[in-house]
Each structure stands twice: as structure tokens, then as C-alpha cells.
Amino acid sequence: MGQGNKQTAMKRIIIDPRPDWQDKIKQQGFVFYKGYYNESAVYEFSAAEVDRIEAATTELFEKCLAVVQHVIDNDLWDEFFIDRKYADLIKWSWENDNPAFYGRFDLAMNEDCTDIKLLEFNADTPTSLLEASVVQWYWLQEYNKGLDQFNSIHEKLVSHIKLCRDYLYGDLSLWFACARNSDEDFMTIKYLQDCADQAGVKNYFLYMNEIGVQDSYLNTPFVTPEGYPIHNIFKLYPYEWLFREEFGSQLVSKRDLTLWIEPAYKVILSNKMLLVYLHKLFPGHPNILPAYFNNPGNLGGNYVKKPVYGREGWNVEVVKNNETQERNNGEYGEEGFVYQQLFDIPRFDGNIPVIGSWLIGGISAGMGIKETTGLIHGNMSKFCPHYFRQG
Fold first, then answer.
1. Sign of the CA dihedral 91, 97, 98, 103?
2. SS3 of 389, please?
3. What interhelical angle do 183-198 and 153-164 show, nearest 10?
């Protein structure tokens, strides 16, 4: 058993994996699991701890939305490294409350979850969705169906997609798209398509590089390679990349013809400058760590250096007492770096857990736990199931 040994503190418990777990999770659509999914340990929480995580998630989301309004009101596009030609599109998506399906906070916490801090907001292209919503739920039914799990992700997703149907354009069908080179993104998209099926929304799939435009006809939506109109599309593809695509400017001219989900204002929320402005607007907030752009400020030589636009832990550096503890090199960092105060997360059996707290339609919906023996979390940090006990 891990460090947590008080009745009110979270615990990491060593368990035996199900003998046929690989076959079962593959049947559930989880094909991206080798070296990533861990069924030999489970995290136990109390109901009070889950309540605190849920409350922190709700509070943080409200504060993040306040940052979006602040950026728009003060034209802070340069500070967020957003091309100003997309400003009106972003404002339009915000003011029209365009449909948004989901997001995931990565939260750090002390042992009994009384101190919960935001590490970052995966607001635009979060993954680890299927394992949090479906895989760990079915695991619990076999492990002990008398226990509870903070997890209504699937039900809320289906319900929310059904609600969003009334806001879709044209024939009300929804395309789903991702890049070709990611099994994890493809798996996530296929799961979301399944949710759309259950919500009664007709849907189709294509890859991002198959999306086209008919430039000679301004009043046409984006199209498939076969020329079929794309009235609505969910993309698992970051806006900072989308804005740089050859057809990027068409996002503006065709905004009334093709509806993009997630909405364009998510480019603010998925940007690490969000962390800086959360600290600026809400200094001393119990869930928000001090963060500064391009300098460590008064962080006392204890910080995590993150690229403004970054993914999967690349180009992240952890510094403690002015000495680098761990660094991941990569291709990000062109825009500069955010320096966020280091928060020491307790280790459990040598593992550092981070809570992925999910929002569906802006509502706290559940969580998944990812752990690593190192200090930097990436897409291959191991996913572990969880449960909580009442009382």
C-alpha cells in the first residue's frame, strides 16, 4: 500500500489485474493501451475528497471563462500569441456560445486533497477520454460493483451531444476528424462518434488532411474529398495548428457555413498564457499557482517551465532550488515559456499521480488518474482506475 495510510487520505492500492483484461478493454475500443494502461493498482478516495475535487473543478472553470472575457475585452491577442485576423472569429464563437463538448483539467493535490492546484487546462484537444469514461467503469463492475466512482462522463457526453444537435448547421450531421498519425486521437474520435450515435446524431469520419474548400464559391461550406458539404465538424486538432493550415483564413469567411467544435475561443483556454492571467486576475486563489511569462518571477528557484504552446510534456523543465530536476526536449517553445510555481505532489509507491478532472458541457463529470515515476507527465504516463468510499 502507498503513502496514504489515514482513513481520510487517498491511497494507492496494489491489486491483481483481471486475467483477460487486454481482451476486455480491446472490446471496449481501447487499443492504445500497451505500456500505458495499468490495472495492477487502483487509487482510493473518500467521498469528501471527491467533493473537493468536483468543487475545485467548478470553481476553476468559472475563473477560466473570466480570463476569456478579459482577453476579449482588452484585445490581448498578442499576449496570447494569437493571430489578430482570427480575433473576430474567436469573439463571435464566444458571444454566440458555440457548442463545446468537453475539457480536462490536470490537477495536482496533496495527500488528502485539501490542497488542489491547477497544472493546466486541456481545453481544446484532451485525450484519455475513453479510459476515464468507459474502461475504468467496466473495471469497477468486476472489481467491486458496490463501490462508487466519480464518473458520469459517458452519460453526460451522450446527453450533451444530443442537446447540441439543435445548434448544428445544415443537415444536422456531424463530421469527426483527427490527424492520421495518432492512434490515441483516432481512438478518442471513434469513441466520440459512438457517443454521437447514442445521441441520435448522424455522423461521419474523415482525416484532417482530407478537408477541402471550394475557393471559387465563397458561399459554400468546407467539403470532403468527394465534394460533400461539411456543415458541422468536431476536430481533435489544436487551433494553433488549424490557424496555420492553408485553409485557415477560410475558418473566418465560412463561419456561418461550417460550424467547428470545439469552438474557436478554446484557443485561449488551451494556451499556457491562461495560467499567467489566472494568477494576474485571481492572485492568491487557493487553486491557482503563481505563473509568469518568460521569467520565474519571485518563485524562489522552484518552478516548472512550460512552452506557451506545447503538448505531451515536451519542452517542459522542472527546477527545484535553482537546479534542473528533469527536462524533456522537443520542438515547442517558439513563442516563449510560462514559469509556474512548483507544487510538490506526494509520491505513492514511487509514483506521482495527477488527476484529470473532466468537464462535459462545462459541468464537472468525473476523473481519471495518470501516474508517472518521473516529474513530467506525458501521453505515456500510466492510467490507473479509481473508486471512492462513502462515509
1. positive
2. strand
3. 70
